[in-house]
Amino acid sequence: MRAQLERRRACLEAGHEPLGWKVGFGSPSSLERLALEGPLVGFLTRASLVASGSTVSVGRWTSAVAEPELALYLRADVAGGSSGHEARVAIGALGPALELADVAGPTDDVEEILAGNIFHRAAVLGPESRARAAGSVTGLEARLVRNSRQVARTSDVEALTGEIVGLVRHVAGVLAAFGEKLREGDVVIAGSVVPPLSVSPGDELRFELAPLGAVAVSLEP
User: What dihedral do alpha carbons 145, 166, 64, 3 form, nearest 10°?
Assistant: First the structure.
């Protein structure tokens, strides 16, 4: 984690704007396999932010993966050790997100995964719904479409990620342990709501999070 945060500081010193944070390997099976008490935490900058509808080149990636996720938009700081109530009221909006990762290393070496920022390459953010302030996920339906064909769907968007309020508290606690802070304005992408999908150049992806909206991206060599 220290190596990852040093990398983040170098990015910021080079002029990259901070965007927020991400979690990974938070599904029940991953937590058990890696003997983790909570998901791994990585960082986001605006350098990896991709507009919905854009095209991303993945031809030189080792193993491209797409992860449809919930994006949490914070309207207040969250300190380490914050209560569930404090974390909940800090969530100002929810929205759909699609993360692209390049699994270019071992998936069983936690230190290496963290130092490499959990394989992150790009994030696509969709519309923010302030009607979902405080993090209510009731009634959300997630649907992932590849090349006009549905490949995954769930109405339990916290089944693989865990409860999102708990995720906010977890991220805040991890950051506090390393001298960082979860801040107002940060975006947290909360982990894949369905199993990650291996993707290839030529794929067109669309993640729909009804009734909040959708994001899309096309992949090229």
Answer: 160
CATH architecture of structural domain 2-220? Alpha-Beta Complex (3.90)
Q: Determine if residue 134 is left, alpha or beta; phi over 0 gives left, psi from -120 to 50 gives alpha, anything else beta.
A: left
In the prediction, which pLDDT does 38 show? 97
SS3 category, 8: helix
Whether 206 contacts 66, CB under 8 Å: no
Query: Which phi and psi angles does 46 have, rounded to 5°?
Result: -70, -10
Q: In angstroms, what CA-CA distances link 22 with 53, 109, 148, 205, 211?
A: 22, 18, 28, 20, 23
* pLDDT, averaged in runs of 10, over the chain (221 residues): 98 98 97 97 98 98 98 98 98 98 97 98 97 96 98 98 98 98 98 98 98 98 97
Which of the 8 DSSP states describes residue 126?
A: -
> What's the whole-model pTM score?
0.97
Domain boundaries of the chain, sorted by first residue: 2-220
